[in-house]
């Protein structure tokens, strides 16, 4: 029996951070043995923020090295760069014909971006979920391991897939589903600034590539409050966030210890932060060392990208041909 197909991607706009790692990459790594996996670098998506050619190039190289350093195995999974597969852009053009202004304008990510960059509300931002749907559907992905922040974009991809199948009266695309290894909820890794998610554009991220010194500094500066005043009081968001991060990187005993101190109003945030920083460093240090090593090996990176592009195109060409056939493109001459 064929293995189900899994696909996910990351925009190359900086370094991978703990949110990317725990929200997407880690799930993905655990799936590479049992699924037909595609993991890609969304360089076309990153153009919505107008990177310089130099930044685009170095960003792609960095993410590629980071994927490999995290443990994505190019012999098992197909690792590729979005712009190496022109079939994605072609499918994007076709899907755009059945994507409507109203529904695109209503997506939260569009509204957020339009607020964040009012001088650059470009059409690429508006149709961002359509390109994302093309990424997913070109490989007929069954599962998409992403963080909570991508839930709505994934919902749009499901909608576009169903719509296409309905219009052309053929089950061309499977309906992609979100996926977390182990079956838990999609996660949202919080930032260190007291509210919201960890993110590149939020400026509150801890990167996998970050030096231990810098991790300690960032964690020690994380927003807290003056401490609980009543036994068993509910934690405010900033404190809850620190505990969520601890849940992710520390042992259950450590979390229970600090939770107990909080509930007894005996917590010292400085102690918690020190331990949290060391636990994050224990996680990221080996990855950081591998990133440094891999970044030096351009020949290996080029080989991985070439191999990935070939495998990804093989799958994409097939789907695109089916799509063009049902749409009605015919070779007349
Ligand atoms: P991007 O580059 O913003 O993030 C990449 C992945 O990391 C996850 N993530 C998080 N998960 C949990 N907590 C966080 N704080 C956090 N921050 C980021 C994201 O959910 C995502 O899985 N549009 C996508 C890239 C993309 C894509 C796709 C993903 C393009 N086409 C097709 C899946 C399938 C994006 O901008 O992710």
Task: Walk me through what this model shows.
There is one protein chain. The protein is mostly helical and 333 residues long. Helices cover 53% and strands 6% of the residues. It has helices at residues 18-29, 53-70, 86-96, 101-105, 108-116, 123-126, 128-138, 151-167, 212-220, 237-249, 252-263, 269-295, 298-327, and strands at 5-10, 36-41, 78-81, 143-144, 177-178. The strands form two sheets. The chain has a three-stranded parallel beta sheet. Strands 4-5 form a two-stranded parallel ribbon. α3 (86-96) crosses α7. It starts with a strand and ends in a 6-residue tail after the last helix. The model has no long low-confidence stretch (mean pLDDT 95). The structure holds tryptophanyl-5'AMP. Residues 7-11, 19-20, 23-24, 42, 45, 132, 135-136, 144, 146-147, 149-150, 153, 187-189, 197-199 line the site of tryptophanyl-5'AMP (TYM).
